[in-house]
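so i finally got all the pieces together for this one. its four components total, 362 residues if u count the protein bits. some of the lines might not be protein, just check the labels. i wanna see the whole assembly predicted at once instead of chain by chain like last time, that was a mess tbh
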Amino acid sequence: MGQQLPATSYALLGLLSFGQSLTAYQLKQWADASLRFFWVAPAMSHVYREAARLAEEGLVAATDARDGGRVVRTYAITERGRSTLAAWVRDAPVDFPVLKHTVALRLFLGHVVDDEHTRSVLDDYLAALEHRLADLRAVRDSLGDDPAFRSAARVADWGLGYYAFEQSAAREAASTLDDAR
Amino acid sequence: MGQQLPATSYALLGLLSFGQSLTAYQLKQWADASLRFFWVAPAMSHVYREAARLAEEGLVAATDARDGGRVVRTYAITERGRSTLAAWVRDAPVDFPVLKHTVALRLFLGHVVDDEHTRSVLDDYLAALEHRLADLRAVRDSLGDDPAFRSAARVADWGLGYYAFEQSAAREAASTLDDAR
DNA sequence: ACAGCCATGTAACTCGTTACATGATTAC
DNA sequence: GTAATCATGTAACGAGTTACATGGCTGT
């Protein structure tokens, strides 16, 4: 009956709160397609460990099914899981987002290299942003205005705004670099 | 001659690249005042460990001075440290920022609670943002337009823009919650 | 005298990663 | 047949945290 799980556990538990039962493998896929935009996408082995822990805590129920020659383990959220999750979403104190922004760190240390190098880091970042933005846009489109995914859609919109901001900030930083010459 | 250090090591090494020698304690203070806005602020004990490692690698040089009855260990970046840092800033592949955004996660899971609870999470977040923004604004002001801190100032501006974006995104999310009623 | 900050670390632990290992199913 | 994907895990490690422990200096 351990409480106060790490946030990643709640994140995975949360993926099971949308109604479907999922295998650890599928959980990882959903994490890559959704959590990744505002949270860390946990490694496969991490997902297996977390799923096992949630099952131990009784927050999810595991069902083994035989699919031909192999056994597939599927997880479903339990009543207790649902209420534990709700309590966390409702009552946890807000904690401030943590950013691990390597590009910003390298910009911060720009004085140790020539500006053209920093400039090219920003260009690479802008290219990477383009890809992420396309991925997220696809996710957002798939959510549509289905009321079941309204909360997810809100976060997707937030993410789209964030990426757009990152683009403009990177472009702005690049232009101040160009001005400096 | 270990290479490819974790980014946090480069971050701390980078704090020593601004010209001053610092104790581990001061390193922690500088990290809290600067890195914190776009990177994790490492725990005190973490800083001590990293400082020791950097010294072992020859990237920083430690000097012990006697200050009355106690010994104070001060770190300065070495030539090798400076070139290692520059090589990382210049040549490391861009890696995409990772966000650990608990508020977004809770918004994502909004369907498990009543909207008013999600709404209050957003309000708490807006209040926290206000504080952060004030802190960062003070940092930004202290940098002025001193050319020695031009790169740092660019990142501070980026951060200010980010917090402003977060405010507008949180307000927007809050207003779609209100509309839903 | 006492509080609060400066200063330095160690120990134990958790989170999260990469590497390793295995094997069944599906599509070409 | 063979490659890709589905599926499940273990082992070893590294990053980062909190708790613990110590003691000097500084201001009131």
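Chain A touches chain B through 66 residues (CB under 8 Å).
The longest helix of chain A spans residues 150-179.
anyway lmk what u think
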